[in-house]
């Protein structure tokens, strides 16, 4: 089941050529990103939003990083 | 040689790559939650009878375990744009034929090496596959993509063209529609060989200049070159299938205002003004009526387009429930944004539109809009038109799903 959220979350990321999420927090729990499944960019006016689908090995999450306000969001969860 | 790159079940493959839970499962990508058809489906769904164009209910009937996914247009357009960027690093002679097909004119390099390079890039970067066809012209290259699909490459040498084209039935030749193939079948013409024997003169008599073109095609000849420049834009338009049938004039006008705004904003962004408005109304029986009207002057302003759209709508609408509305402006002039007219009773339209465009450009499309547009249950472009291109006037920015 897919839950659409768009909630601000804390993310640990490596900023290389583009930001690479390594972990994020969800309900006080640290979720380690096992694999970045997909990455793409979307424009929202002047903002460039980096989007990712990632998995911790169980669930698939969609997270995003807004380059303009430098914030991470948990967009959706596809639970096992 | 010409290379044709054709993505394999593009939208469905992207969905499966983005969500590992969908891998190996029958999925169908649909346009939207409401009243929509299957846009494309995964190979697993195709094997169970799901076809493009089926309603979602038909798809669920033939394949009860099909997973319906609402299209994520912004991912597909991003992936397509990135692939086109890569193709243009190989040669500037790239023709984007649709969101998932492109032709390349390869002059100096080995086309097979280039073909495998493209396949490798697509697979490595986006975890999806494409098929490559190589031939002496676009027709042969396009048809060659079908031979080893998916994830395959096939090359037809110039001397093998006739032998290759003869392996197809007429209806399977690119550009020969089902209706025309049926017409030929009723005349006892089933294969390219039959059509060649029918003769050029008789084909010309039957179909005019199209007949000559067809005669050349069954000889494996195709004169259209790879066109890398965007052809001149003749009109700018948007249409929208209403999520719920439009029963009242008020509802229709809200959508017409939205469409007028979308058309005028794109005209202004690309520096066009138009002088003719075309309106189409489709009812729930899928019957379409359309009419065009001269605006009387060149304009890129929403209020001029909307006013003319209302006049046309009132002339055309017969009070039957509306399924789709579409408007376009034609008779375009470039490098000319015109926002005011001598008859306008408000002198600051140019400043108003400038402010609207700046706000929407900074904060995203539809950040500022007319209040009546908020009455629409669907706002913004969500469906990828076949005319969509990664850049230029035909590039449409999609609203988030």
Notable characteristics:
heterodimer; A: 80 residues; mainly beta; five-stranded antiparallel β-sheet; B: 401 residues; alpha+beta; MutS, DNA mismatch repair protein, domain I; DNA polymerase, domain 1; Dna Ligase, domain 1; five-stranded mixed β-sheet; 38% helix
Summarize the entry for a quick read.
The complex is a heterodimer of chains A (80) and B (401). Chain A has 80 residues and is mainly beta.
Written description of the protein model:
- The complex is a heterodimer of chains A (80) and B (401).
- Chain A contains no helices and eight strands.
- By secondary structure, chain A is mainly β.
- Chain A has one domain (2-78).
- A five-stranded antiparallel β-sheet of chain A has the order 1-8-7-6-5, with no helix packed on it. Chain A has a three-stranded antiparallel β-sheet with strand order 2-3-4, with no helix packed on it.
- Among the domains of chain B are: 10-73, MutS, DNA mismatch repair protein, domain I, CATH 3.40.1170.60; 162-217, Orthogonal Bundle (DNA polymerase, domain 1), CATH 1.10.150.20; 235-375, Dna Ligase, domain 1 (2-Layer Sandwich), CATH 3.30.1490.
- Chain B has a five-stranded mixed β-sheet with strand order 5-6-1-7-8. In chain B, strands 9, 10, 11, 12 and 13 form a five-stranded antiparallel β-sheet that branches.
- The model of chain B has no long low-confidence stretch (mean pLDDT 90).
- Chains A and B meet through strand 5 and strand 6 of A and helix 1, helix 4 and helix 14 of B.
């Amino acid at each position: 089941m897919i839950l659409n959220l768009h909630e601000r979350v804390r993310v640990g990321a490596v900023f290389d050529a583009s930001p690479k999420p390594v972990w994020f927090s969800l309900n006080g729990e640290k979720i380690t990103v096992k694999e970045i499944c997909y990455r793409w960019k979307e424009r929202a006016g002047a903002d460039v939003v980096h989007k990712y689908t990632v998995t911790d090995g169980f669930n698939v999450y969609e997270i995003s990083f807004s380059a303009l306000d430098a914030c991470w969001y948990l967009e959706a969860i596809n639970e096992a | 040689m010409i290379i044709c790159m054709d993505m394999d079940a593009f939208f469905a493959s992207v969905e499966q790559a983005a969500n590992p839970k969908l891998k190996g499962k029958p999925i169908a990508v649909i346009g939207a939650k409401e009243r929509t058809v299957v846009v494309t489906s995964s190979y697993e769904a195709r094997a169970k009878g799901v076809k493009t164009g089926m309603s979602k209910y038909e798809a669920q009937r033939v394949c009860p375990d099909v997973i319906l996914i609402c299209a994520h247009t912004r991912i597909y357009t991003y992936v397509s744009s990135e692939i086109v960027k890569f193709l243009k690093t190989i040669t500037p002679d790239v023709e984007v034929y649709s969101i998932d097909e492109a032709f390349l004119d390869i002059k100096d390099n080995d086309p097979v090496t280039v073909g495998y390079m493209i396949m490798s890039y697509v697979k490595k970067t986006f975890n999806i596959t494409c098929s490559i066809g190589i031939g002496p012209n676009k027709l042969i290259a396009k048809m060659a993509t079908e031979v080893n699909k998916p994830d395959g490459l096939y090359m037809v040498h110039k001397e093998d063209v006739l032998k290759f084209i003869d392996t197809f039935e007429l209806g399977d030749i690119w550009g020969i529609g089902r209706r025309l193939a049926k017409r030929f079948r009723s005349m006892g013409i089933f294969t390219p060989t039959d059509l060649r024997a029918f003769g050029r003169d008789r084909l010309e008599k039957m179909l005019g200049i199209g007949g000559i073109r067809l005669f050349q095609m069954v000889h494996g000849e195709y004169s259209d070159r790879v066109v890398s420049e965007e052809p001149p834009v003749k009109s700018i338009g948007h249409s929208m299938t209403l999520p719920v049938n439009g029963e009242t004039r008020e509802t229709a006008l809200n959508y017409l205002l939205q469409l007028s705004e979308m058309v005028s904003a794109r005209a202004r962004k690309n520096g066009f003004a138009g002088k003719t408005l075309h309106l189409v109304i489709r009812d729930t029986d899928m019957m379409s009526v359309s009419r065009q009207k001269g605006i009387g002057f060149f304009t890129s302003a929403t209020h001029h387009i909307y006013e003319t759209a209302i006049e046309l709508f009132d002339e055309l609408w017969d009070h039957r429930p509306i399924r789709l509305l579409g408007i376009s402006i034609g008779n375009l002039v470039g490098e000319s944004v015109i926002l005011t007219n001598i008859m306008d009773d408000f002198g600051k339209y140019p400043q108003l539109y400038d402010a609207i465009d700046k706000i929407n450009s900074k904060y995203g499309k539809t950040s500022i809009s007319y209040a009546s547009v908020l009455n629409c249950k669907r706002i913004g472009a969500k469906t990828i038109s076949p005319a969509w291109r990664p850049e230029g006037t035909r590039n449409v920015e999609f609203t988030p799903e």
